[in-house]
Structures are given as C-alpha cells and as structure tokens.
Write a structure and sequence with these properties.
The protein has 171 residues and is mainly alpha-helical. The protein contains nine helices and two strands; from the N terminus they run ββααααααααα. Helices cover 57% and strands 5% of the residues.
Length: 171
Amino acid sequence: MESFKFLGSMLTNDGRCTCEIKSIIAVAKAAFNKKRALFTNTLDLKSRKKLVKCYIWSIALYGAESWTLRTVDQEHPESFETWCWRRMEKISWSDHVRNEEVLLRIKEQSNILHEITKRKANWIGHILRRNSLLQQVIEGKIEGGKEVTGRRGRRLICYWMTLRKGEDTPI
C-alpha cells in the first residue's frame, strides 16, 4: 500500500508529507474562495489580514506540527501565502506584480514557514516532556537500519533534523 488517510492525515510508506500539504492547501483555498467577498470587500487592510490569518491559515496549517518539510515542500506553503495576499488585494498574475511588491502593498512579511516552525517547537516540547514511545521515535532511540527500511544511500530526513535545522530562526 502506497498511502492511506488516517485521522485526517495522509500517511505514505516513504514518510513524506507532500500529498498531505497539497491536499490541506487545496482545502484552505476552497475555504478562501467560499468567503472571498469577506476578504476582498470593504473592510480595511488590517482587518482582512487578521481574518485571513485566523480563518484560512488555521485550515492550511492543520497538522503542520507533524510535517517533515523538505526544501521542495517549503514552496507549497509559501506560494499559498502569496496566493492569499494576491486574491485579497485582487492582484492578477497577468499584472506582472512581483511577490515582494505584493508583500510591500499589504505591509506584511512572508511568515507562514516561521509559524510552522513555532508550532513544531511547541509540539516537540510537549512530546519531550512525556516519557512515551513517540519521544523515543523522535529522539532516534529506536533501532533500525538497512534491513528495516530496505533502502540504501543517504538517510531520510527526519522530524528532529528539520527542527534542528530551524534553530537559528528566532521563535
């Protein structure tokens, strides 16, 4: 079996989260389009930004604590964030407006990846305070190797590595 959905998360045999990230972002885009009039109408910019972060980002970042983000996977949340700001400001792709210009217009920085890192740090702190099997798995204390994974070559990136890689990012 290649993948299956369990408790709302897409689990794959290779441990990657690309399918889950894409499906959750698709759900968040559908939610944005349902309430498009609310986000693009007469409210001031500050209120619209708060509404997007409250209602749409909560959908898009559901379960983000457990994602193992590779460099390729980081593009999806970033492009979703830009997509939201462009739709909110009614900026078409044919207007040839750069992403940096969009962020300047709404007086915002690209911070969805920072939010994911914050959520991961909070979740890992919660897990590591308990003595459980999940703690041992995250710390890498479970024995394994080539005979367990059946793979050769470089080790797969794990959750702990992604959290450590983002240590230089202030939370």
